[in-house]
Automatic annotation (TrEMBL):
GO CC term, one of those recorded: cytosol
Pfam families for the chain: HTH_3
Keyword Manganese attached: no
Domain HTH cro/C1-type, chain residue ranges per copy: 42-85
InterPro entries: Cro/C1-type_HTH (IPR001387), Lambda_DNA-bd_dom_sf (IPR010982), TransReg_Diox_bact_type (IPR050807)
Protein name: Helix-turn-helix
Originating species: Algoriphagus zhangzhouensis
GO molecular function terms attached to this record: DNA binding; DNA-binding transcription factor activity
Amino acid sequence: MKNYRSIRTFDELIDLEHGKIGTESRNTYEENAQMFIVSEMLKAARKEANLTQEQLAERAGTKKSYISKLENGKANIQLSTLFRIFEKGLNKRIGLTFL
């Protein structure tokens, strides 16, 4: 059983639940967290643009099923496809930050 009594920060909780940065477990957690963020951003932007998944797919040159998978965090996405969906499909620009 894990000891949560000494936990004081969110980072400490993540370390306890998923391991330290650089471990396989933590890397998997971080990848899944990033995919969740992208999927939620995509879903919110599509809804803000008042588009259906089918309309977005048509604008971006992809399939509705792919947009659905992305929004549900069930598909990986290439950077070029991400740019195309946001820029052509949603008329939004993407900025990347590397830490």
